[in-house]
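Hmm, how's this folded?
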Amino acid sequence: MATVPVYCICRLPYDVTQFMIECDACKDWFHGSCVGVDEDEAPDIDVYHCPNCEKTDGKSTSKSSGDIRAVQNGSQVFIKELRSRTFPSSEDIVVKLNGSQLTMDYLEEVGFNEPILVLKKDGLGMSMPAPTFYINDVEKHVGPDVGVDVIDVTKQTDSKMKLKDFVDYYYSTNRKKVLNIINLEFSDKRMDSIVESPQIVRRLSWVENYWPDDALLGKPKVTKYCLIGVKDSYRDFHIECGGASVWYHVLKGEKIFFLIKPTSANLSLYERWRSSANHTEMFFADQVDKCYKCTLKQGQTLFIPSGWINAVLTPVDTLAFSGHFVHNLSVEMQMRAYEVEKRLKVNCLTPFPNFETACWYVGRHLLERFKGLHKSNKQPAAYLVHGAKIINGAFRAWTKKQALLEHEDELPENMKPTQLIKDLAKEIRISEVRLSPAQRHLALSLPALYCTDVFYWPGTSTLCMTQVIFLTIVYRQIISLIIHCITIPVGQKLTFTKLTVPLNSLENSRK
């Protein structure tokens, strides 16, 4: 019986359905999928050398320029090179916490500006399927005929496929392509009942807390994603749509994240890189100062803050869950990332639909919250006031005459934008003229010159006393003026104590 010829590094017989390319050195034939060459790229190759011949005869060259053939991000050659590279450890930028430590109080105190890694899900208030749950169970709980977006990793392109067809591919022994599912959102499927996002995410999420259940426009489906990746799956560098933060939990397998800080310089470089026609042939990490490598192992959970530029490599077959959320702790970065997204006009596989609508609902919530606090003579947290200013600034931009047509579809029903902008601005001003506890402590701990005045707050029946406090900061020889308005109920007896101290005495007292 005659021996069937075999080809390529996979040493399989010729398959008429697969594209192959001949090596100009050894004259052997190779499957494009095995050596990272797309069929539509072949006409541009002048001299092709297979991976083995590259070592002795040099790399392939292109007809157009004679340069070394560019490596496509996601190709097998690229993945091999990526695995061999070294990156700064994420220990420098990732905060490690226990699940019970990740609370609202913690985030309000230290902020959410760096990735957070939780080694065990205990204390996160998160529900996950049993360890025996796998890909065929996903099909049962979501439905075999559900359409999913699948990334062809080698080409970094996406296509539609039924979930049952992807499951067949996943369990096949001869995968001819590297395919990856990153956006199977299942919040309206049966699997929703066995997966619950971390409690801190539910506490922070604009969508879950401020989007009305009875709104004509349904809530964005961004809270629960199932991620199914085979070995060597790769998603190139990106910023989450809407500047959303994201959580990941690996149920089985492992994921490697390449993380880049969202500095102004890095965001500008990212926008320029993403706008380039050949960005899929340029590894973005080479253009920035530092890119950190973070490995997320089975059973671990990672929280990535707003704006962080990241790529993801799946080194082994992996099943993971994730979700996107926008929140009050990162309003400025969310808005900046959203503006970058709009300028790039990139179709995102994990979009955050109606981001502006969410902002309008949040603006209305902050208005009522500020009113309630001010009525009780309490002060909103500084990050809330700052976020409200950013949001109100966006409202003004979106409602300008020349911009309204572009943004009016995002305006919720029964919303009065002009009045909301005006009222929110008023509450922000009230918050800003009041001293924080830290400022009050500073004022009382230093010698001061008090000048008092009494007046009615405009439009109210509240009597106010203004204290103008002159402080001398000796080391810089700067005199700061701080104005503090203390509201006092009408009818309360006021006793003023006037203290006069020469400014030179203040200076001498600090020497």
